[in-house]
Specification:
Number of helices: 17
Distance between the termini: 59 Å
Helix content: over 70%
Number of strands: 0
Shape: globular
Radius of gyration: 20 Å
């Protein structure tokens, strides 16, 4: 493909719709796999020196926020270990890691691309790579396509059943950024996206939907937990969302009431976690980890004013505590 033709194909993405009603299956032009690698090559060739390459990689790392995979990874492995009732193979564990990285890259890239105009108007997010101009739209699309390659490639290697169902999380990733334009239930869209993680882990092991109820219960817990902490995160943009007529719970209910809703969601999430412990774990050796998970959910609200601590650090620890609880339960039932 000639460079001029390639640039024409890339430029077609500049009309990505900002409204859900504008989004159709024809909004994204089809790109063959060779096109993807040509786009990635075109992006990388823009850097002429080692310093520029380092700067570009730094920008890419900030854009992708690969560390956010730590939210979903424990949930994926929790679903997988509960399905296997024991350890999974190293090969499967690594493929799930690659799939999770690809999926997270796709989800974040879609969110940044779809919300780039809103981010430009928000003082808190105007410093992000796209609105600040440190990354061009074709480069962001190249990141998105690379994430898709990782995701679909690893899904195929895990099993054909996983590949068949792999578009489902992507549909959620496309839809939920638009939800805040018309409903305060947008936080549950984020929760639904992370709820796919334990279900994906379960299906990766079983290669079927049979006996998947424990996976759904884990997914329900994940949705309540994530929706609750997304409400806490949204308090950062309460005034901006109200001014822009965006439908976050803090902008619609006020910060105090929104945090109360978040607390109710996390209380219900803990009830679901107790049910998982009682029905699927059944090991008193895991009880201290259940108690620690409850304390971390409480601490998240006690420290809600420190969003970085509540949203990122506490939640990452909580995810791995739940994974540890399942590991102990599976091996010492």
């Amino acid at each position: 493909m000639a460079k001029s033709d390639l640039r024409t194909r890339i430029s077609q993405f500049s009309t990505i719709p900002e409204r859900q009603s504008d989004f159709t299956s024809t909004s994204f032009p089809a790109l063959a796999l060779p096109d993807i690698f040509l786009i990635l090559n075109e992006v990388l060739l823009n850097a002429q020196t080692g310093e520029e390459i380092g700067l570009q990689l730094s920008t890419l790392a900030r854009f992708v926020k690969i560390e956010h995979t730590l939210f979903s990874l424990p949930l994926i492995y929790t679903g997988a270990l509960l399905a296997a009732r024991g350890w999974i193979s190293l090969r499967l564990a690594l493929l799930m890691l690659v799939a999770a990285t690809g999926a997270r890259t796709v989800a974040l890239a879609l969110n940044r691309i779809i919300d780039r105009e809103i981010d430009k108007r928000n003082p808190r997010t105007a410093i992000r790579e796209l609105p600040a101009g440190r990354m061009k739209l074709p480069e962001a699309i190249a990141v998105l396509l690379a994430g898709l390659v990782l995701y679909f490639g690893s899904a195929e290697l895990i099993g054909s059943f996983c590949l068949i169902w792999s578009p489902l999380p992507l549909a959620v990733f496309v839809f939920y950024p638009y939800m805040k334009r018309f409903t305060p239930l947008a936080h549950f869209g984020v929760g639904l996206g992370l709820a796919m993680a334990p279900l994906a882990g379960w299906v990766a092991v079983t290669q079927s939907l049979s006996n998947i109820i424990p996976g759904f219960v884990l997914g329900f817990f994940s949705m309540l937990w994530v929706a609750g902490f997304d409400i806490i995160y949204a308090t950062l943009d309460e005034e901006f969302d109200r001014r822009e007529n965006l439908y976050s719970m803090p902008s619609r209910l006020g910060k105090e009431k929104a945090l109360r809703v978040s607390g109710y969601l996390h209380a219900l999430a803990f009830v679901v976690l107790v049910y998982i412990f009682a029905v699927y774990i059944q090991s008193w050796l895991a009880a201290p980890l259940l108690a620690l998970a409850g304390f971390l959910l409480y601490l998240e609200h006690a420290k809600a004013s420190d969003v970085e601590l509540a949203f990122f650090k506490i939640n990452i620890v909580l995810g791995f505590v739940i994974l540890a609880m399942v590991i102990v339960g599976v091996h010492f039932a």
